[in-house]
Amino acid sequence: MKFFALLLAALLFGGTAAAQTTPPTFNGATTKIFLSRLTAQAKRVAIEKKYPYEELTELNCVAFLVDTTGQVSQWRFRDNTCKGRDSVGYAPASEATRRLLTEAFDNMEGEWQPARRGDRKVRFTVNLVVRLPVKAIAQALDPDPLLFMEQDPGESFVPWFRPRVRYDERFAKVEGLVHVRFFVEADGSVTIDEVVESPDEKLTKEVLRVIRNSRGKWTPRKVDGVAQRSAYELRMNYGKQ
């Protein structure tokens, strides 16, 4: 009984308890505040350098290591094509997005203070989900945006698209995300760029059929009054909700 009493006392008073880790800070601010500053910086860079907003990916997962001296390394993007701990449920960021976020990250002025576990400084991997303000960037860069049926495609395309896909008994056992990148050409026609993700080849063909049938309903964006080729991305989930 005496042994068990001593063991219980050790557990209660922290004899074997693991110290809690305090995440790193940036100029004394939390990683949540750093995230908001990084997003704002990315918006400034995108507008200043006129990044192709139509090629930007809205949701992105990034990670980097802050070592015990506050130095940052291993900056990287995480997505559903990665392996191990970097595998997350996000589609890969576009090349334009990778350039933009990397530049914005490099432009952040300040210093990191390392994470701590008790009294010790420890290495810590920071994981962030960055939501780029693509619509705000587009509005700042492009007074004549891409339209679908004379409206913002974000509000008009999916309601038009969804009921036209014949998601019938052929796809009773098909579930998952269909992610397609395509271009609206300067003449309003549609060109498929890439099927990023899809759970079924037949469903892919059906989705592409409807996308192609949207030709003529698009109003290409304009720069100085001249119609431009414009990229667009469609993401649709099928199956159980």
Number of domains: 2
Uncertain segments: 6-16
**N-C termini distance:** 55 Å
Principal-axis shape = flat
Structural class, judged by helices and strands?
alpha+beta
Q: Main sheet?
A: 3 strands, antiparallel
Order of helices and strands: HEEHEEHEEEEHEHEEHEEEE
**Rg from alpha-carbon coordinates:** 24 Å
Lateral strand order in the biggest sheet: 1-6-7
Helix content: 25-40%
Indicate the mean pLDDT.
Answer: 90
Strand content: 25-35%
**Number of helical segments with 4 or more residues:** 6
**Annotation, overall tally of beta strands:** 15
Essential attributes:
single chain; 241 residues; alpha+beta; TolA/TonB C-terminal domain; three-stranded antiparallel beta sheet; 6 helices
Can you walk me through this structure?
By secondary structure, the protein is of the alpha+beta class. It has 2 domains: 18-138; 142-238, TonB (TolA/TonB C-terminal domain), CATH 3.30.2420. The protein has 6 helices and 15 strands. The protein has helices at 2-12, 31-48, 95-106, 134-141, 153-161, 201-212, and strands spanning 21-22, 25-26, 59-66, 72-78, 112-113, 115-117, 120-122, 124-131, 147-148, 176-184, 190-197, 218-219, 222-223, 226-227, 230-238. The strands form 6 sheets. The protein has a 3-stranded antiparallel beta sheet with strand order 1-6-7, with no helix packed on it. Strands 4-3-8 form a 3-stranded antiparallel beta sheet, covered by helices on one side. It has a 3-stranded antiparallel beta sheet with strand order 11-10-15, covered by helices on one side. A hairpin with a 5-residue loop joins strand 3 (59-66) and strand 4. Helix 2 (31-48) crosses helix 3. The model is unreliable at 6-16 (pLDDT under 50).
